[in-house]
Amino acid sequence: MEITKHCVQLELNRRKINQLLLNQRRGSLTQSSNHRPLQRDLAATKRTKTCPTGWTKFSCTCYFVSTKSGSWDEGRKDCITRGADLVVINDKEEQDFISSFANEAAWIGLIDNETEGSWKWVDGTSMTLSFWRDNQPDNWNGDEDCGQYINKQWNDHPCAASLKWICEKLPPWTCCCCPGDGQ
Ligand SMILES: [Ca+2]
Ligand SMILES: [Ca+2]
Ligand SMILES: [Ca+2]
């Protein structure tokens, strides 16, 4: 993915800058014009590290819970309109964050409408780690293909039901994968 490549490049730049600063501190390097673009890049990154108004930052990502309710599709469309997508829960830390962030049932970016029981995230990845409630997913009445966050766990739910939704987006600053960027 382009974004990943971009992150890797920025991480390499960040390391170069750190090395440069270290060398400068040691007095072993004089100012070189070659490094100025990197320093500008780092300065710009630091200046803008906040999520847009109304979004909450966790780790390197911005999150939003809707005030409106609607179907899974409506929720997803709204997230896309906001430059985001429904949340993809990648790990336990993110699941714990969502549990503290969302205080009522909401759509997440999980769906099994193509093949029953084969859960996919909206970014196209297959679900591997999961946080289902006991006895879920149960595809109740043969009509539950959309993932719902509910009370710190997940449930499969009819996609046409009306719920709030949780959007996730990469932040507006450029470096999205630098160690130490958390919170
Ligand atoms: Ca995520
Ligand atoms: Ca299903
Ligand atoms: Ca269910």
From TrEMBL:
CDD domains with a match to the protein in the record: CLECT_DC-SIGN_like
Domain C-type lectin: 58-168
InterPro entries: C-type_lectin-like, C-type_lectin-like/link_sf, C-type_lectin/snaclec_domain, C-type_lectin_CS, CD209-like_CTLD, CTDL_fold
Record keywords: Disulfide bond, Lectin
Entry superkingdom: Eukaryota
Species the sequence originates in: Cyprinodon variegatus
Pfam family, one: Lectin_C
GO terms, molecular function: carbohydrate binding
Protein name (record): C-type lectin domain-containing protein
